[in-house]
Rhamnogalacturonyl hydrolase YesR
Amino acid sequence: MKRTAIFTSLLIFVFSSLTRAQDIKPTEVKKVMEKVANWQIDNYQGLYSGHDKPHHPLDWTNGALYVGMIKWAAMAETDKYYEWLKDIGQKHEWQLHRRKYHADDHTVGQLYIDLYRKYQDKEMIEPTKEQFNFIMYHPSLSSLHWKTPYHQDRWNWCDALFMSPPVWAKLYNVTGEKKYLDFMMTEFKATTDFLFDKKENLYYRDESYMGKLDNGTKIFWARGNGWVFAGLVNVMNELDPKSKEYKYFLNIYKKMAAKLLNIQTPEGHWAMSLLGQKYYPTPETSGTAFYVYGLAWGLNQGILDKTTYTPAVQKGWNTLLGHVTSEGMLGYVQPIGAAPGKAWADKTEVYGTGAFLSAGSEVYKLYGGK
């Protein structure tokens, strides 16, 4: 028994030493981001997680990819990524996806506004402005309760907080019209009041998970909370840090960051059921990438303590690298879902790539990239 304990301790020491030894170099971060971005573009219509046809280019899955891809485009030493993204918008006449109120179908608006910032072409954002103006003047009266009539016309599932609020915040920023910010704040607060567990400092995916247990633990989905954590960052990036709105989001962000630090696995990822590491040992890269993105951002902004949080980012990034194939495919991305489940080395999804590229953009800065 004593020998076993010594051997186990030795293994832990070797593993932690290896992790420390894997110093992160900005040039290497950039190189792997390029490889992953290129693989995804080459396999944009690929079927890698069980769905039977490619996602629509304006679908939320691809919208999340574009959020990360445009961050990479700003780092790349060529405009080919901007051109690829711009071509998608032009082909679809800068329209949002099909459902007027549904947050998922707003996601692509983040791309349009970021492209507008680069090219200053108002056609890129006019359809988004028109649709959001309609929503503001005809707000949904639906309940946030799950499966009530038209319930997803409002943000009653936590994924929505990544998909739609950053579009409203970006639109406020580029137009200077506070009505977009005010509408977003009202709806975001309503969702948070409904889904945020103040004891655990995590979000339920939706009302249907409240009060349920999985192997005795509350069910907090890793990617679901990843959507929220990254969404908080993407909103705060659009706001004045001295504003009351920014401080509202910062308060949630800090609470979630502290919780995430506490529940990161020894391997560096986050379990698919955040409080159930024992029951979900399989790595999952989309949620992990969003957490690495958010934590690295906080370090870069001087919000989080470097001594406390940098090791978590380093472990998280290194574990992500371990799941990138030699060709550039990010594996262990949980397929589309709404709860903890399974992931496989040969399964990926476009939103996982988007999360990885977002993470890389902040890790690059954290380790000295210019």
The radius of gyration is 20 Å. The chain has one domain: 27-366. Residues 27-366 form a domain with the Glycosyltransferase fold (CATH 1.50.10.10). Residues 13 and 133 are 57 Å apart (CA to CA).
